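quick one
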Amino acid sequence: MKIISFEGIEGVGKSTQIKLLNEYLGSKGLKTEILREPGSTVTGEMIRDILLNSKESLSSESELLLMFAARAQLIHEKVINSKNDIILFDRFYDASIAYQGAGRGLSIDFIENLIAFSKCPSPLITFLLDISVKDGFARKAEDIKDRIELSGDKFFEKVREGYISLSKQYPERIKLINANNSVEKIHQDILKEIEIVI
Ligand code: TMP
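structure w/ thymidine-5'-phosphate:
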């Protein structure tokens, strides 16, 4: 089983690209599954509800640990013994480094320890869809904002920078894709990278 993960700030178009890539992989006869984080297990979806919809204030530390509680459950239930050829992750552990590390200012070393502790396998490849914070939120202008989306532009600028620096730290794994392009062009950019690794 191989993991392909998709990352980026809000409004970059991850879900559309995951759907297109999933169709492509299916057409090649590969057995796939799409998992979203936080979520994709019964427990994980309950934790997601707290993380995104809680009206109570959550400390950054609680937020981080809840993300990892959901993640550890997902790894245990659906990843470690997966019979799929490929799991497509709509966000994975890089999101914790970008959002809780770079964004909230929590220790990246500690987050890396949590990644190891929760037995996260490393993705084969990660697509970082990149767009400005302004353009990302403009695409979501009609949506009601959840708790994390209400964190403000400064927070999301730090998250975006955090993601970009991760892509520089792991250039072999994390591919930065310009998400300003058309859906079809982004899909083609992704396929070029996929054909090299699959
Ligand atoms: P989304 O997947 O529907 O965009 O919502 C998930 C939200 O949770 C999004 O704002 C990113 C955030 N998030 C983190 O802050 N840390 C994480 O580790 C993950 C997986 C998501």
